[in-house]
Design a protein that fits this description.
Blueprint lengths: L2 E9 L10 E11 L3 E8 L2 E8 L5 E9 L1 H10 L6 E10 L2 E8 L7 E6 L13 E4 L8 H4 L8
Antiparallel strand pairs: 1-5, 1-8, 1-9, 2-3, 2-6, 3-4, 4-5, 6-7, 7-8
Length: 154
Amino acid sequence: MAKEIERKFLVKSDSWRQLAQGSVYRQGYISTQKAATVRVRIADNRGYLTIKGRSEKYTRAEFEYVIPVADAQEMLDTLCDRPLIEKVRYKIDWAGLTWEIDEFDGANKGLIIAEVELSDKQQQIELPDWIGEEVSDDPRYFNSNLAKVPFSQW
């Protein structure tokens, strides 16, 4: 079974911007139940269908499949809850790990979150100077919840 171990942080400065270029992401949720979420995404002209299990201390089951972009677009247009998640994702290599910085647009404009995937939930990490408060345990920052209660409504 595929497992995702991920920690999330708020971003406190713009010093990371010089380190990466971004890719536009557009995603939506077909289902956001407690036991599992089903997400459709278009990123860099590729479609994806992702199923994620319940999050337990930074870890959850994750299954992701490439799908035709036309199918992904149709699902985003007809099956996904609103609002859709719109963001630009930047990837930065730092101290042996790849950080993903999501700068949200649309209903979540103004929110910037950095995520890092780990190989073990006990793995020690070196935090870049642009990293702020950790929000891994705050469900408001899950993308599936940002689709239900956007940052602009907090």
